[in-house]
Amino acid sequence: MRRVLAILSLLTALLGSSSALAEKRDLIVTPKTAAGSVPIAGQYWALIIGIDKYKEAPQLETAVKDAKGVRDVLASRYGFRSDKIIELVNEKATRTNIESALLRLGRESKPEDSVFIYYAGHGKYDDDRNLGWWVPVEGEPQEPATFISNASIRDYVGNMRARHVYLVVDSCFSGTLFAKSRAMLPAPDDKFYARLYAKQSRWALTSGGTEPVEDRGRQGHSIFAYYFIQALRENEEPYLIPLTIAGRVAPLVARNSSQVPRSEPMQGANDDGGQFVFRLAAGAVAKKEASPPASASGSSEEMAQMREELETLKKQMTAPKVEPPKPIEEARVRPPSAPGQMGREITGKDGAPMLLVQEGEFLYGDDNQRLSLSVFYMDKFELSTKLYAAFLQASGRSQPDDWSKQVALVGSGDRPVVNVSWHDADAYCRQYGKRLPTEQEWEKAARGTDGRKYPWGNDEPTSRHALFNTSWNGYATLATVESYEAGKSPYGIYNMAGNVWEWTSSDEGSNKVIRGGSWNDRANLMRSPLRLWNTPTYRLNYNGFRCAQDSPR
């Protein structure tokens, strides 16, 4: 059951969660920060709210367990004292009690304190007026006056004396809390954390934007809460900030559900550019949750990859704003016409065919911005195992994981190389006088100039167009690079939706943007404007690449 009121007739059945099987390897050492190197004063406060047993609204199943899971990890690993934790679950989570708790935090927290607020329950949204609410336990579905508005939450948070307030909301339609995103932050060290701690912050992480989010997920938690708690539990660094948490949680939630979390400063809440800094308690040891039991069709390889997915090996990365998917609308102005014919084909120095993408305007992003690019070439196919094998022989670069299993399948069709990091992909392209495409180039090559939703048009994906929403069954799961003729882009480029995510040269903080969706993703992640990111050192069985090349002048 989803966290959404029954009165919302617009909500139809949404898809269940799918597995995200990922393998990670960190080859780059990030700046180390010693415990105690950041001067943190004051107390840590927490307000924990979870509601399953609504009096009037539909019942939920996981909100209380989510709230208690968050409470426990704050106390056990980050030193939150029990007398500083206010817990309101089920019948105690009335509107009066919630607002009284917010007032108490405003009165009792001191200027050097940090306040954490977690809400798991129903949310309500008025699309016409862009208004959002939390629904307390007694909230009546037909009476918004019985709810707590997001505007009120912002007011309470904005007027708290505490230096930092971090609000985490797992409910439908929570995206109306946000302001515009700030610029990305530099690599973390002790001075970095000290600067962030010194400035006031009012930051929020929500399980979605203005879309419904899921109640069920994994091991009795919602999908968002499962990965949020996992990030807190498995962190081994002395300091942890909201941007780092978002960088770990958002991609996993997006790949395993139809929601995309957001992490940004709160709108109109007196944010001054700082960050809430979680401080790992002395002697805290990361407790890693056991992997879920394998399904009947699951393999030991899948389970090993799942355990790797759940490990946090990246050392304090920063993460950017994650834009939620917006409804695709036709451009309000007459769009440029689609390319009249496929681009001229050349052969790259590596032997890969490349297609010309003409210069000029195209419609970019979910909001169909008009951008213009110079002419360039793009690989017609995802980079194949066969071509990558030749590169390894010529360059002496280390082999990807499971390399023998990948090359063993070349005789039955050439599949895209996977388990390659961004650095591997970049090195390959440079070896042959090419480069990774920017995300703007990638999107134009995928959707052409007319703002279409997918490479083939606006029809929803089917098994004729792309490989997606399937289970891992070894490397034979991957489609050959010449598959899916019906899914070609307007320029004749193959597999720009599904099969494997593709690295681009574009940055998102310390991460690299990936595009296109993969074999294990749902249809909503096949959209050409959709952008996610990964850490450059990750090697994953759903990440590959293709190269671009400038056109000779």
Give an overview of the whole structure.
By secondary structure, the protein is an alpha+beta fold. The protein has two domains: 44-284 and 298-310, Rossmann fold; 345-550, paralog of FGE (formylglycine-generating enzyme) (Alpha-Beta Complex). Helices cover 22% and strands 18% of the residues. The protein is built from eleven helices and 23 strands. The protein has helices spanning 63-78, 95-108, 150-158, 190-198, 223-234, 242-256, 300-310, 385-395, 403-407, 422-431, 439-447, and strands spanning 44-50, 85-89, 114-120, 123-126, 131-134, 148-149, 164-170, 201-206, 217-218, 221-222, 239-240, 262-265, 278-279, 345-347, 353-357, 360-364, 369-373, 376-379, 501-508, 511-515, 532-534, 543-544, 548-550. The strands form seven sheets. A six-stranded mixed sheet has the order 2-1-3-7-8-12, with helices on both faces. A four-stranded antiparallel sheet has the order 14-15-18-23. α1 (63-78) links the parallel β1 and β2 (85-89). α1 runs parallel beside α5 and α5 crosses α6. The N and C termini lie far apart (58 Å). Mean pLDDT is 79; it is low at 1-32, 173-188 and 286-343.
The main pleated sheet reads as:
6 strands, mixed
In helices, the fraction of residues equals 10-25%
Termini separation comes to 58 Å
Tell how many strands the DSSP assignment holds: 23
Provide the CATH top-level class of the largest domain: Alpha Beta
Rg from alpha-carbon coordinates: 24 Å
What number of domains?
A: 2
Low-confidence stretches: 1-32, 173-188, 286-343
The whole-number mean of residue pLDDT values reads: 79
CATH arch. level architecture of the largest domain: 3-Layer(aba) Sandwich
CATH-defined topology of the largest domain: Rossmann fold
Number of alpha- plus pi-helical segments:
11
Structural class: alpha+beta
Note the overall shape.
elongated
The main sheet orders its strands as: 2-1-3-7-8-12
Tell me the β content: 15-25%
